[in-house]
């Protein structure tokens, strides 16, 4: 009995090759999605958890700007800051740009020198680790350590020499010896707020790094407290102490709970969302299995009756048809798990740099594999239970007397009401057929609705983000930001650049830092810090879209603040009102002189006003910008063209002993666009997978409908219906399902876009949902519906009456 | 081709089955004149339904010629034959085969819509036909809401709607009780009197005995008319 039962199962699966292939493909796609996305997520978060030790992470990181040419007593500052309430440990770090090359190379590569005030073996916050052979470098010996990924990338090892370009030094570079390979699991950021790439990270003692990078002060101060709640309470005191106890200007304050590190939770969030999409795709695949099993049980009604008449119980039949569903599961799961594991490892490696970690070698995620196998087998089985249970309920009499067209329509209130609707007969038949099969079509409809809503929601959201980010970059009238390691005499540097760097149109002063704004709560950081930009309103470095107030239209030197609309609305402030800023421990009331439409919460001030407020001054006590905003002659340069100018700029500044970080604004815009596209594409793929499964579901449901209505088709043909009449009826049915799914998907798309924005914690003013997604979704839905309906429609139209009657 | 309404000449029909070819009709010659009422009888599997399928264009002969109402059916495409059938032949089935999701009136109107006939007067014409078959009260009901006899009368109205010369019934009374079957048969007799030609397959020897011309099919061949008359007579 067991053998014959499995023989029947396998033969039934083989006999319905196309439908078996559809079901198995849907499960394969679902399992592939689940295993790929879960594997990638698991590998990335496991790696991050392994690398980022809770006890090594700072609770507060303050990015600082150092005064130029000052004689700094860093040890005293660290001691003083260590006395701040609740602080248990303070460490100073410098992350500065450092050009390097291999001996024999013509050009220098961009790199970074990372140095801690503390000796290597006494670093307790975000410590690097020696990897394999070698040792940490010593001061004054021209020794350096490099990140192991840099060593791997360039084939470097302990004992090799590299040439480093130092400010004011030999243009050919000084030779330094690699003493050790270092693993730096923690992310580092340059003064220009860019993440430092691991494969370009070098390490030296603080004294050597000062000489190499041409700086005296820190770029970041790390602090740990007795516990995180204390850090939250006392972070403002620490921030204020920097102004009071040191000559540094605090540029940006970052607080994070080491127990729930942002880098881990961010990765977990992103991969969690992706995994959720994979699981939805799997569930959707289950819906398709329901349809297919339903159709098979429906077709086999007579067979079931015959088997029952021969003594088979309902359980025997149940086992056979549930076995078919499980067979679909096995066929789809095996390749889904194998390929998904491989793709998951590749995906983790592809995403590791973006998520600030490193996945090396090929690894498997056992939890993802197990989940894939369980879902791949359980979902088809669970999906099959109800249709099989209902289908095998058929009695022998019902099975053997199934003649003529099913005729129980017309008793419901709906049927009577619908009768009054004036519609063409063909459309009426299509509508009523859809309503008659609503149970079966509901699953397909649900799939298509979810797919359309996801696609439109994701597409609409990412188009909107791209649009707003594009608008944000449009406001910047400069292509390069130069942040000298230490504050410099602006006029002198401007003269150097204008005289020595071809292609530069203008060099304007800029200040970028965070200040405390009373009553304001940043939606991003949950603190009262507001990012401030100081610029010269008389120059063309910023082109703000002022929506209220006059800002600097009448007086470019006017004192006051322009708030972005999000901030103004949150504080309920309008031009003429005042806001209170706290900087350097001092509170200052500033008049709101304008409100600007800008994607991200910010404040804008005339740069001198801001410099005085935050204490960014030169040795003469005059306002000094922290950055220089460079406008190029070429109004529309490429990333590479801007990079070329940066190379020239670097050379001019280094020759004059000035080391600086640079930001290629065009490159940043492109990177952000690529990042958005990458995440958008991943989400879109998941939505498209669902749409494909929905289309297969529709195809299967309509095919089943054609089969069930063969007699009806035959009768229509026998009383004069042509192919177009018959095909149009099935096409109309498909379109009805597709269009109603699209209609319901429209409001859902808005909800999905809102939900995704909330869960991804994207705080960009005006970002929401681009309605163009609805029309693209509609076109997509029409294409999917037509493609899925075309096969069954043509198949129905091709049926000849004799074929049908013989089959019956 | 001669002047007969239905003309089958040397019609042979072979079905390809997994067990090998099965010959359903073997060289059938049959002429049916206008206004004739013909019964096709014979045991199950003898080829009765295949024979009438040849006349309606539902099936095509493997060899031989079929002409109906002046049209050579073997030369028409499936689509053309569907349109032709809708206009020229009324088909009545044993299980009525009304579209379940359309009302009786809409069912009766269907052939006119498919064939593009009687534009602007379809509703009125359909009502006329329902009156003719004496079930006008069923017009707005769904098939599931009326009796089997009413359904078959509605199906006959549908068959008559494009005013075809030929009505073909495949056991049209086979699924009806005696009273309903009698009423349907009387309706057929009346239609013949009005000028229609009716060919019907029946297993009912009593009804067949009331039909002026009986053709018996045995093993795919037509048995001689005299032989059938004698057998029918011997049954009574």
What does this 3D model show about the protein?
The complex is a heterodimer of chains A (808) and B (236). With 808 residues, chain A is of the alpha+beta class. Chain A folds into four domains: 1-52 and 261-402, no CATH class; 54-260, no CATH class; 406-477 and 672-808, no CATH class; 486-658, no CATH class. In chain A, strands 1, 2, 3, 4, 5, 6, 7, 8, 9, 10 and 11 form an eleven-stranded mixed beta sheet that branches. A six-stranded mixed β-barrel of chain A has the order 13-14-19-16-18-17. Chain A starts with a helix and ends with a helix. Chain B is built from eight helices and ten strands. Chain B is globular, with a radius of gyration of 18 Å. In chain B, the strands form two sheets. A six-stranded mixed beta sheet of chain B has the order 6-7-8-3-9-10, with helices on both faces. In chain B, strands 2-1-4-5 form a four-stranded antiparallel beta sheet. Chain B has one domain: P-loop containing nucleotide triphosphate hydrolases (Rossmann fold, 3-Layer(aba) Sandwich). Chain B has helices at 48-56, 78-88, 104-115, 122-132, 148-160, 178-193, 205-209, 225-235; strands at 6-17, 20-32, 37-41, 63-68, 71-72, 89-92, 166-170, 197-201, 213-218, 221-223. The A-B interface holds A 403-411, 415, 419, 425-426, 428-429, 432-433, 436, 711-712, 715-723, 725, 800-802, 805-806 and B 15, 49, 53, 56, 58-60, 78-79, 82-83, 85-87, 91, 93, 95-103, 106, 109-111, 113-115, 140-145, 158-159, 162.
